[in-house]
Amino acid sequence: ELMESLRRVFVDxxxxxxxxxxxxxxxxxxxxxxxxxxxxxxxxxxLVPLSPPPGxxxxxxxxxxxQMAARSFRVRVEWVSTCQREQLGQELLCFLHHxxxxxxxxHQRSLLKTLCTGSYLxxxxxxxWFSQLLxxxxxxxxxxxxxxxxxxxxxxxCQFQLxxxxxxxxxxxxxxxxxxxxxxxxxxxxxxxxxxxSSIFGSGQPTKANIMxxxxxxxxxxxxxxxxxxxxxxxVPCESLHLKCLQVFTCILRGTGFSCSIWKTVVVHVLxxxxxxxxxxxxxxxxxxxxxxxxxxxxxxxxxxxFVLGNERLPAEISLPPAMQKVxxxxxxxxxxxxxxxxxxxxxxx
Length: 350
Prior knowledge:
There is one protein chain. This protein has helices at about 1-15, 30-35, 100-105, 125-135, 220-235, 240-250, 260-275, 285-300, 320-325, 335-340, 340-350; strands at about 20, 25-30, 45-50, 55-60, 70-80, 85, 90, 115, 120, 150, 160-165, 170-180, 185, 215-220. It is an alpha+beta fold. The chain has 2 domains: about 1-220, 2-Layer Sandwich (Beta Polymerase, domain 2); about 235-350, Poly(a)-polymerase, middle domain, CATH 1.10.1410. Strands 1, 2, 3, 4, 5, 10, 11, 12, 13 and 14 form a 10-stranded mixed sheet that branches. A hairpin with a 4-residue loop joins strand 11 and strand 12.
C-alpha cells in the first residue's frame, strides 16, 4: 500500500518531465515469499520496474560473458520520435526532430542529460534521483501521518526505515528494467549468488560487486521465484508446510556451509518433482528427509540445476525471455566438480 501510494505521487510529480516512470512495485525475497532465514537482515525488498519516459526507449545490452546466472546488462537509452503523439491534448516535443533551442526554451531535458552516463542509464544516478523524489513526496502520501521516515545511505538502491513509535520497518527499493514481457529483470543490486554468497565450498562464482560499474544492471530471477511461491501456495493442502521445511534448513543448519540460496533451490526442485497434494502436515518429517536425500544425490553427482534457467517444469504462468527458454540447465555445483577438495568438504558437511 505504501509503495502504491508513493508510485501515484511520483507519476503525478514527473508527468511533465522526462524521467523514468515507476511501475507497480513487486515484493521479492524471503520476506515476501513467506519464509525468512535466521540470518535474515530484516529488510523488506521491493523491486520497482522502470519504464522509459515519452520520446525514449530502453535497450538491454549484454554486459558480461560467462555463466548465465552471473550476467549483467547495460540499459541503453535511445530517442524515439513523438511527432505523431499527443499527451493531454498537447503535442509532445520530439528530441529527434525539434531543435535544441526549442527544447531549451520549453525547459525540456532528455533522460540522456539527467540520469545517464554516456548513452546508458546510471544505477547510482537513478538511485539518488529516486531517493530525492521520495524525500520531496513523502508528506503527500497518507502513510506520512502515521510513520516517520529516515533515509539510509546506499549507492545502488534506495533504503529507508519507517517507525511509528511501536514498530519499525526497514525497506530497500531496487530498480529494474524488464526483459520484454517476461518475469526476468535487469536490476540495480546484485543477488546473493552474484556477490559470491552461493556457498563457502570452493570459489563459487566470484564477482566484483564492490567495484561494479554504475552502468551495470545484474540479471535477477527474484520476480520469477516469488511468482513460483505464490503458484505453490494456491495448490498445496497445507499452505505453509514447504516454507516451514525451508526455514528448518536455513535456520537450524546455519553454518554448515550450504547457503540459503542452495537450500531454496533444493526445496523448490523437490516441490516440482512430487505431487503437491502429498504435502500434508503429518508428512513433515518425511519431506525434511526427502529434501536431505535430494541434496545428497546432487552432491554425489556434483550437479544442482538452477531453478529458472533451463527448467522445463516451470509453471506456464512464469514468463521467460525467448532466448532463455532454450538454454541448457545451469549447474550450481559445477565448481565442486572442478575442485576435488571443495567437493570433499561439502560431502563432509553434508
